[in-house]
Amino acid sequence: MKKDSEEIMLMKGNEAIAHAAIRCGCDGYFGYPITPQSEVMETLMELEPWNTTGMVVLQAESEVASINMVYGAAGCGKKAMTSSSSPGVSLMQEGISYMAGAELPGVIVNVMRGGPGLGTIQPSQADYFQAVKGGGHGDYKMPTLAPASVQEMADLTVLAFDLAFKYRTPTMLLADGIIGQMMEKVVLPPYQSRLTEDEIRVKCPWATLGKPHGKKPNYITSLELLSEDMENLNKRLQARYRILEKEEVRFEEIACEDADYVFVAFGISARVCQKAVEIARSEGIKAGLLRPITLYPFPVEKIKELSNRVKGFISVELSAGQMVEDVRLAVNGKVPVEFYGRMGGVVPSPNEAFNALKDKLIQ
Amino acid sequence: MTEEIIIAGFGGQGVLSMGKILAYSGLVQGKEVSWIPSYGPEQRGGTANVTVILSDERISSPVLNTYDTAITLNQPSLDRFENLVKPGGTLIFDGNGLSKMPSRKDINIYQINATEYSIAHNVTKAMNMIILGGLLKVKPIIEVDNVLLGLKKTLPERHHHLLPMNEQAIKAGMELIQVFTV
Amino acid sequence: MKVTDIVNPANLVYKKNSVLNDLPMHYCPGCSHGVVHKLLGDIIEELDIQEQTIGVAPVGCAVFAYKYLDIDWQQAAHGRAPALATAIKRLLPDRYVFTYQGDGDLAAIGSAETLHACNRGENIVIIYINNGIYGMTGGQMAPTTLLGMKSTTSPKGRMYERDGNPLDMPKLLAGLDGVCYVTRQAVHTVGAVKKCRRAIKKAFEYSALNRGTSIVEVVSTCNSGWKLTPDGANKWMVENMFSQYPLGDIKDTIQTEKK
Questions:
Q1: Would you say A161 and A24 are in contact if contact means Cβ atoms under 8 Å apart?
Q2: Residue A1 above 50 pLDDT?
């Protein structure tokens, strides 16, 4: 394999996902075109990984088929993924719920656009609830990673697969139209080989690869007709989520050490707020930024700790206010938690975010 | 050094690719870069714009409300972005088909009639390179050699025979750009 | 004479295949599913592909198919079996992959997944159990329900003006180049079971040739849903279903080439 992992490249976030998927040993990508993420499949088709790593890339007839192809591949212990944008991800919710119930690992990328409905192709973060609260039916959670740069589009794709297999769960990369469409510098992750079938049998003893002689067959299902059995499955899932919540929280703090006021923002909003912090500091206001990298599990403890020493939080989102609810739960009334958001594909400018901080928290 | 640039015009004028070449050139020169296009149907015949940031430091917000430099290639873009140039900043505009000229007195304004020139010299495909040459003349943020390397990176190999033509276009742009007095 | 004296290899006239396990099936007495399961077990044993076969179970009465045949299985969301099978076969091209779907699953909710898997010519086998009704949910109208046939959602009978005509998916799918074999069988008589067995075997053999999708429809009874005795259901099927869904091969590209 090529050893050019240290080469600095310039590419779109969507393209970085495709490159990272091939490099981390992904076995299969199944997708359906939708703006603003079509470059993921386009890049894969251009790179022809079936000739190098053997990865399968298939354009499906719908998002419904895509997620079910991911289910089928994941059931065989294969590293499989799909990508889409908001309306397409809504269509996938059934499949994601089935994957959660059948304890299948897989990666779903949502490069969010404005809704509801067909909405707009412009960037949005209004699928936060859908992603972190369990968008499909039933009690399940899904690790949700929020990249804020092209570099993270690559890095978090790799991490998403790691978490998916570690916890046997569908895992979401929740990006937005800007992070998907923008170009930045990126150092791509090193190549990992795809697992062999023997390795899969060891790592995923539950996989359906064909029943070995003298062994019991495997079956992948989310169905248990007996309520007690179904409750046990749910308990097993919930226990796993508690471990996730303890072990896998990730965030970045910028200028929080001495901050009086803290922006909480993810994805493109976090980048905007980072500049707002610079503006605030230049005007003598001690502002900081807490950027959750994992939206589920949410950095609850970190926010609790900050709420003991700051004067207030402001959550800035491309939505009507979704993550702010989780910030409020974590702060639990200790200090004010305000919200500023734009909807329908509008991205707030750094000045808007800064003015919101002044108007709503400082006055 | 941080340079925040917006380039805007009609789809098909090479706005996005000019931004891309600028970004690649920045990469070659070892700068931090970001490139954000307006995407979607706008690309096809409507107005298109691209934000490029070149910086010596980590870039915080790739989304901006004001710019160090605005480059406008049509009237709607000029009308919209003239007002978003920071005081003391730079506006470069193509004069083709304008009915209303720029009027701000607190910024540096340059006119470059690249459209007219490119038609006259039968190099319409390199029109955006003429503009880029103009930019590099008044704001030498990137060395021309690095721009040529950046260009090489963005052009597919089968188009590499066009490199000399593009280099000439950059040089022509450097000659063509003029101070515009309000 | 004791029973144990009779039970010895010398007296053996019939033996259950080794792929089918001993778990009692949940199907209603008289249901066609049990017979088709047995045939699948027979063929997997005969072709010696138990370790290379992966089945995809549907939503419907056969949702628990994975409990009865000792092979690796995945259970799909309603209608999505061909999408799962596509990915499984693409990633494990030397395995035998089949879906087992009912008429609600294949002809209604999963019509898109079925059509596109067939159009791509996925090298899989589709076993299609058509009893003209939603059995598991209590006998509602399916796309395959006959005109005039009563169901809980067409209590006065299916009406063309309201519900359209019965949908013949295999006939439709046979028109696709990606499909190499389409046949319609039944399992109501010994003779029919034998023919159906040959058809399923052929479908599995074809799927290893990488020539496209093979579809075996089994026109079936649902005596519970039809509110008939098992024997009465068989008779009703012969008298009513076979005229709408005539038995026999609809397409056999590979056989045609041989001639």
A1: yes
A2: no
Residue spans of alpha helices (H) in chain A: 13-23, 39-47, 63-75, 86-91, 93-101, 128-132, 150-167, 177-181, 197-203, 227-247, 267-282, 300-307, 323-331, 350-357
Contact A61 C80 (CB under 8 A): no
> What confidence score (pLDDT) does residue B12 get?
81
Domain locations in chain A?
8-197, 251-362
C32, C230 contact by CB (below 8 A): no
C133, with CB counted inside 10 A (0-12, 13-18, 19+), is: buried
Radius of gyration of chain B (CA): 15
Whether the CB of B81 is below 8 Å from some CB of chain A: the reply is no
Residue A2: the pLDDT is: 43
CATH number for the domain harbouring residue C139: 3.40.50.970
Write the CATH number of the domain with boundaries A251-362: 3.40.50.920
Question: Nearest C-alpha of chain A: how many angstroms from C82?
Answer: 9
**Confidence check on the interface: ipTM exceeds 0.90, yes or no:** yes
CB–CB contact A68 C50 (8 Å): no
Cβ separation A347–B20 shorter than 8 A: no
Say what the pLDDT of residue B41 is. Answer: 52
C148: left (phi over 0), alpha (psi -120 to 50) or beta: left
Cβ–Cβ below 8 Å for B39 and A121: yes
Q: Are the beta carbons of A275 and B60 separated by less than 8 Å?
A: yes
Superfamily, domain A8-197: Thiamin diphosphate (ThDP)-binding fold, Pyr/PP domains (3.40.50.970)
Partner-chain contact A278 B59, CB within 8 Å: no
Q: Which positions 41-80 of B are in contact with A (Cβ < 8 Å)?
A: 41, 59-65
Tens digit of each residue's pLDDT (9 = 90 or more) over A180-211: 999 999 999 999 999 999 999 999 999 999 99
**Interchain contact C137–A (C-beta under 8 A):** no
Interface check C98 vs A, CB under 8 A: no
Distance from CA of A331 to the nearest CA of B (A): 26
Measured between beta carbons, the chain A residues lying within 8 angstroms of C66 are 217, 219, 221
Q: What kind of architecture, by CATH, is found in domain B2-179?
A: 3-Layer(aba) Sandwich (3.40)
For A357, the token pair is 């901080």
Judge if the upstream peptide bond of residue A36 is cis by omega within 30 degrees of 0.
yes
**pLDDT values of chain C reduced to their tens digit, one per residue, 259 residues:** 788 888 888 888 888 999 999 999 999 988 999 999 999 999 999 999 999 999 999 999 999 899 999 999 999 999 999 999 999 999 999 999 999 999 999 999 999 999 999 999 999 999 999 999 999 999 999 999 999 999 999 999 999 999 999 999 999 999 999 999 999 999 999 999 999 999 999 999 999 999 999 999 999 999 999 999 999 999 999 999 999 999 999 999 999 998 8
C90 interaction partners in chain A (CB closer than 8 Å): 28, 56, 58, 73
For CA atoms C146, C148, C154, C155, give the dihedral sign. Answer: negative
Average pLDDT, chain A: 96
Rounded CA gap, C31 and C143, in Å?
20
Global confidence as pTM: 0.94
Touching check for C23 and chain A: CB below 8 Å?
Answer: no
Give me the sheet containing A312-317, strands edge to edge: A251-254, A287-292, A261-264, A312-317, A337-341
